[in-house]
């Protein structure tokens, strides 16, 4: 079976089971109460384990100010993933032209103007602009959760265009950031193995764009800046990343002017569980009826 056939097969099974509700757009789904309940219970489990490090808790909407977005290099490195929010800001005459184009089947979107917001490409992005200034000696650790948008239409049910991440971000010295990444890599593997998922850590890279992006990807791998935990979802041959663990160095400290107490540019690290992906992996492993899942998994997730 080809990977495309495996994607289609699992996607069809999920839809037939009532877990995914198709929208007509690849990678955009409604979720059933059963699917959402698994996400909620796993998310609470993540919160419980993350609380052991006493993080600050913040929640942001899935929108990022355009000004903050432009202080990052996301447009330079991931143009294929961006979501820019546009709206109508014209007068009545321009509105009539917009309607006329719609009625004729023409592209009415050319009559829209950019707004002050972008779709959030990663849960941690809205946090960094709030952290400008000098960190406390112990640095900062923050618990973040929210929706993320990435323009990746796909038949792979695990590659959604809008999905949720639960992240823990660390700002501080290089040593503090790396320790955070490595701590969560070990704990995340322990948590997912405990839920019966056949995960394994791998050195990874982000999907940088173009020829220059390929060079960046090699560099990221060589420096082991990014790890992922992969698990079988649609296929046992091509595994899916369900969690990522990233050391950014000063990638965000520099543009957002975040400093350590000694005046150095702060380093950062983050880890994130893909909530929908973890749920998909659990359904694949244990079946679509959560009442029949292993007792230890049901107990851990309080199902």
Structure description:
By secondary structure, this protein is α+β, with helices and mostly antiparallel strands. It folds into 2 domains: 262 residues, Bira Bifunctional Protein, Domain 2 (BirA Bifunctional Protein, domain 2); 32 residues, no CATH class. Helix content is 35%, strand content 25%. The chain has 9 helices and 14 strands. The strands form 4 sheets. A 7-stranded mixed beta sheet has the order 3-8-9-14-12-11-10. Strands 4-6-5 form a 3-stranded antiparallel beta sheet. β11 and β12 form a beta hairpin. α2 packs across α8. It is globular. The chain starts with a helix and ends with a helix. The model has no long low-confidence stretch (mean pLDDT 96).
- Oligomerization: single chain
Q: Could you state the order of secondary-structure elements as H and E? A: HEEHEEHHEHEEEEHEHEEEEHH
β-strand percent reads 25-35%
CATH class of the largest domain: Alpha Beta
CATH architectural type of the largest domain = 2-Layer Sandwich
- Helix-strand makeup class: alpha+beta
Task: Estimate the mean pLDDT confidence.
Answer: 96
Most strands sheet? 7 strands, mixed
Give the strand line-up of the largest sheet: 3-8-9-14-12-11-10
Runs in which pLDDT lies below 50 for 5 or more consecutive residues are none
